[in-house]
Structures are given as C-alpha cells and as structure tokens.
Automatic annotation (TrEMBL), chain A:
SUPFAM superfamilies: P-loop containing nucleoside triphosphate hydrolases. Residues 22-254 form the ABC transporter domain. It holds the Pfam family ABC_tran. This is Heme ABC transporter ATP-binding protein. Keywords: ATP-binding, Nucleotide-binding, Translocase, Transport. CDD domains: ABC_Iron-Siderophores_B12_Hemin (cd03214). GO terms for molecular function: ATP binding; ATP hydrolysis activity. It comes from Actinomadura soli.
Automatic annotation (TrEMBL), chain B:
One of its GO terms (cellular component) is plasma membrane. Belongs to the binding-protein-dependent transport system permease family. FecCD subfamily. InterPro entries: ABC_BtuC-like, ABC_transptr_permease_BtuC. It is a multi-pass membrane protein. One of its GO terms (biological process) is siderophore-iron import into cell. This is Iron ABC transporter permease. One of its GO terms (molecular function) is transmembrane transporter activity.
Length: 276, 343
C-alpha cells in the first residue's frame, strides 16, 4: 500500500568517462508571461566540471531547477540517456543530486542525520552497505566532521552550506547539480568545495555548479557556460569563453581579463578607476 | 542515538503501570494485584486474587477498562496525529486543535448527535467526524502554505479563522439541539471520556491502529520532508503522494480521537515536542513515542479528572488545555525568539 513499489527502481550502471550525463535541447521555461529561459541547449558529460555563470536573473537557478524536474518546461531534457519524465523520483535520486540555495531544515536534526538523509535513495539496494563510508567521507571532505552531533539549525550559514553539500556528496550520484555551493563560504572553504567537485569529476562524475565568482569558475571549471537574459551566450573552456568583450557585454560592466602569470588561466577583474 | 529505544521501552512500561493503576482507582478502589488477577481470570488463567469489593469485577469490565482503553486509543491517536501534522507542515506548532482540525471534526460529530443520524450505525459519528476533519485539514493546508512551507503567523491565523467558523457552526447546532443532544454536545465540547464503552473502543481502535501503522511507514519520508519539499523530491520522495497520505492520516487519527472523546487539545502539541527534546526529531522514534506518550498523558489526565474531586468529574479537555495552554505560550515565545521574529 504505502511504501511498496510497483516496480523495482533501476539502479544506475557505471558509465565510461566522456559519455553524456545530462543533455538539454531547445529548453524554454515561462513564468507567467515572462520567458525565463529560451532555446537553451547544453550537454554535460561525465568527467567534467561545468561552471554556470551569468548576471542576476539570467536564469541559472531556473536551468538547474528544470534539469532537476522542479519546473515545467518545453524542449528536451535527458538524464543518463533517457528523457527526464520517464524516470521515477527514486530512479532520478540515484542519478543526480541537487544542492539548492539557502538549504533549511525544519527540525533540529543533527549534522550527521542530515548528511545521512543523502543516503535515502539507496535504502533497500545493495549500495546501502556504503552508507556509513559515504556519510563519513562526505563529512570529512566538507570539513564538518567536528560538529557531526550538533543540531543543524544552530550552525552558522557557512557551516549549514557545507553540511548541505556533504548531504549531496553522500548521495554518491553520477551527476551533481550545485546552485551556488560557495555563496556563504570563506575563501578556504570555497576552494575546498571546488577541489571536491573536481575530484568527483576526475572520478567520473558530471558536475554543474552555479557560481558568481568568475575567478573560481575560470580557475576550476573544465568548461564555462554563460547565461544572459535567459539565453546561452557562450559555452566552452574558460580561456575561450571568459573574454573581456563577452563578459563586459553580458554583465554590462567594463571588465578586464588578464592571464594568470603562472597558470595562464584567465583572471577576471572589473575595471576600476580608484586611486593608484 | 540510543535514547530512542530506551524512551520507547520506558513509555511502554509507564503506560502499562498507569493503566493498571487507573483501572483500580475510583469510587470503588481495587488494588493493582486484584486488577491483574481479574484480567488473568478472564484470560482463563487461575492466578492472582479476584477483586474483593462487591461488584468489583463488573466495575472493572463494564466501566473502568473500556474507559482506560479509550483513553489509550484517544491519547495515542492525538499524539500520533500531532507528530505527523508537524512533520508534514514542517512546523512544530501545528496541532489538530490549535489549527482547527479537531473542531472541524467536532462539527461533523455534533451534526450526527443533533440530528440523530444512524446511517452507518456506530460508525456514523466517526465517518462524519472524518469527513469534516478531512475537509478542514485540506483547507488549512491549502490556505496556510506558500512556496513549500508554512509560516507560523499564517498557520495560527488560519487556525483562528477555522476555529471561528467551526465554533459558530457548533453554536448553531447547539441552538437547534434538544435538551439531551445539548448535554451531549456540551460535555463533549469540553472533552470527556465519561461516555466510554466497549463499542466505542471497538469502533475507533482499529482506525487508530491502522493510522499509526501507516504513519510509521511514512516516517523516513517525513524525515526527508524536513529538508524542504524540493530537496525531499530530489531524494526520491513522491512528495504529492506523501502529502496526500499524511492529510488523510491526520484526519483519520484526529476524527477517531474526537468521535467519542470530544475535543482534547494540546496533547498532540506537547507530547511530540517533549519526545523531540529527549530523543531528537527522527520520525521513526517520534511517531511511536508520541503515540505511547499521548496514551500515557491521557490515561493519567483522565485518572486525575475523575478522582481529583470526589463524586465530580473535571472535563478532560479543560484539564489538558489548562496544562497545555501555558506550554503553547512558551513554545510560541521560543519560536519567535529562534527565528528572530514572526517567521
């Protein structure tokens, strides 16, 4: 009756690096009379970390929500090679994990319990055995082990953000969709987050992260997708995409791009007319 | 982490002891060993002393036991529905009486009493309470939620509005009622187990048991729901189905409590809250512990209600409200403090 499933959910099979994890074609999302996303196409492959950048209101969160199946859209979205709508909630939860902005928890669950909730999709499958290791590993990677027993609502904003990320990592899915995972974090933890994301990508995951800090995107992403006004303005390696011309137009601000003296990756700076 | 099972065992033990005590106390006092003896003899075991008092056996089996049993069922249903309601609303202040579901169910049951409806026999009153309770729950849920969560202010204001309408309807019914029905509605408005008999127990016990079992089956998904609806869905929960199940459950449990005992407020608020303080918010412990805790509270409260004043009975609902009201006040202040305003 309740909790019994009509059919067993399909557990995901391992996929070779470079295969398509998420594909979006001709995506259009409307909210009331406003078109939030129009004709967006994007392919995310396993083994890559893709940064999604763009000004406020460009539609970045909406794009993640559409891939996550949270908003009605027209166009094609496939996850693991099958149309989004053909997966059940449980099957999707085994394939992609999503970090939303400002994650809240309504009751005083402890940090360890919240991270453990990330294992829910695997309950009743053979992978349930990995629960403990996945939770412990995710907490270590996000530097939250020391407050494992504290109630989540008592943590600071940055600590909560890391716990929520740990919950997403503990889900151990092939695809990660992260909406501003670095928003509330200090410099050290921002870098830590992207180290973890790159590690996951290197291990064969596909990761999409919305970022506002173009420096982080340039330094860590394999590819950068720039959204502006609901359309995809550019998508490609950071060196090709993050140019002064494109960014100045998209952000409507005079922006300088200089290569990093050691790594050669682009450094993005707003042109400032301050003293000196 | 190990506190949950300990709490369950402790509450279970306390409930058993209280039931034996409560059955023994009253105008005819029967010591606990004789209460147990009477049960054993009925079960066909020739062990323990029989009740020594004249009519002792009858007092137990006709008056006391059904009353204690109804207190257990009613308390468990209230505790359980409070826990489920708070989980699905994502708000620790949700409670069947506070937000009006109990009063909605009360209107249904009062209608049956006033018009003397017997379409479904004993079940008529429960069915009417369930129908009205379900409509009220749906209404409160639809009105008080926005963007996937329930704000305290909206929830409480919705409760005030629902309670206003429900008490107006109850007033109208009392206006239309004859003398007998009027007395029935009044005593039951204040909450009372005085009308308990085995028929009542047999009617609501299966409903409460089914409700409790289904609630327990939802426990893990209710945990995930505390991460927010979207995140719960991302973790594989069919949120729409869970929500529907929970709303039917709340109506079922509340109406099975209200149908014969009337409106007994705050049990569903206080008990889950205390359980969370001891064993944390995980629903796999919270739901059974709230059911056991609700039963403990109600058996104890009913014992006090009928023995505190000799030859008089305090209304049970009045007693729980006297204790629960100040607790609600404290919780409200804490909620305001915790969120830095009326969030």
């Amino acid at each position: 009756m309740i909790g019994l499933r009509v059919r067993r959910p399909n557990t995901p099979a391992p996929v070779p690096a470079g295969s398509v994890a998420v594909e979006v074609r001709g995506l259009r999302v409307e909210r009331g009379a406003r078109t939030v996303l129009d004709d967006v196409g994007l392919t995310v492959r396993t083994g890559e970390a893709l940064a999604l950048v763009g000004p406020n209101g460009a539609g970045k969160s909406t794009l993640l929500a559409a891939i996550g199946g949270d908003v009605a859209s027209t166009g094609d979205i496939t996850v693991d090679g099958k149309p989004l709508a053909t997966w059940s909630h449980a099957e999707l939860a085994m394939r992609r994990a999503i970090l939303l902005q400002r994650p809240t928890v309504s009751f005083p669950f402890t940090v360890a319990q919240v991270v453990g909730m990330g294992r829910a999709p695997w309950a009743g499958t053979p992978l349930e055995e990995d629960d403990e290791a996945a939770v412990a590993g995710a907490m270590r990677q996000t530097d939250v082990t020391e407050f494992a027993d504290r109630p989540y609502p008592q943590l600071s904003g940055g600590e909560q953000a890391r716990v929520a990320l740990a919950r997403v990592l503990a889900q151990r899915t092939g695809t990660l969709l992260l909406d501003e995972p670095t928003a509330a974090l200090d410099l050290h933890h921002q870098e830590m987050v992207f180290d973890v994301v790159r590690e996951r990508a290197a291990a064969g995951a596909a990761a999409v992260a919305v970022v506002h800090d173009l420096g982080l995107a340039a330094a860590h992403a394999d590819r950068v997708a720039v959204l502006a006004g609901g359309r995809l303005a550019a998508c490609g390696p950071p060196g090709d995409v993050l140019t002064a011309e494109l960014l100045s137009g998209v952000y409507r601000h005079d922006i300088e791009v200089v290569p990093h003296p050691r790594t050669g990756r682009p450094l993005i700076l707003p042109r400032r007319s301050g003293p000196g | 982490m190990r506190r949950g099972p300990v709490l369950l065992v402790a509450l279970g033990g306390a409930l058993l002891v209280l039931c034996v005590l409560a059955a023994g106390i009253g105008q005819v006092n029967i010591p606990p060993d004789q209460v147990i003896g009477s049960i054993l003899h009925r079960a066909g075991l020739d062990a323990g002393p029989r009740p020594a008092a004249a009519q002792g056996d009858n007092a137990l089996w006709i008056v006391r036991f059904p009353r204690v049993a109804l207190a257990v069922v009613t308390g468990a249903a209230l505790g359980c529905s409070g826990a489920v309601m708070q989980g699905v609303f994502g708000n620790p202040l949700a409670e069947p009486a506070v937000i009006g579901v109990s009063w909605g169910a009360a209107v249904g049951a009062a209608t049956v009493i006033v018009f003397g409806l017997t379409v479904l026999g004993n079940w008529t009153i429960v069915a009417a309470a369930f129908g009205c309770g379900l409509v009220t729950t749906l209404l409160v849920y639809a009105v008080s939620r926005s963007a996937g969560r329930t704000e305290v202010v909206t929830l409480l204001l919705t409760g005030i509005a629902v309670n206003a309408v429900a008490s107006a309807l109850l007033g109208l019914l009392m206006f239309a009622a004859g003398n007998d029905a009027l007395r029935a509605i009044t005593s039951w408005n204040l909450g009372s187990l005085a009308g308990a008999n085995w028929d009542a127990v047999a009617t609501v016990a299966p409903l409460a048991a089914v409700g409790g079992a289904v609630a327990l089956g939802c426990a893990r998904r209710l945990d995930l729901l505390s991460l927010g609806e979207r995140t719960a869905r991302h973790l594989g929960v069919d949120v729409e189905r869970l929500r529907f199940t929970a709303i039917v459950l709340i109506a079922l449990l509340t109406s099975s409590a209200v149908a014969f005992a009337g409106v007994i407020s705050f049990v569903g608020l206080v008990v889950p809250h205390l359980v969370r303080m001891v064993a944390g918010p995980g629903h796999r412990i919270l739901i059974p512990a709230s059911a056991l805790g609700g039963a403990v509270v109600l058996v104890a409260a009913d014992m006090v209600a009928r023995t505190a004043i000799a030859y008089q009975e305090l209304p049970l609902g009045v007693l729980t409200a006297l204790l629960g009201g100040p607790f609600f006040f404290w919780l409200l202040r804490r909620a305001r403090h915790g969120s830095g305003g009326w969030a």
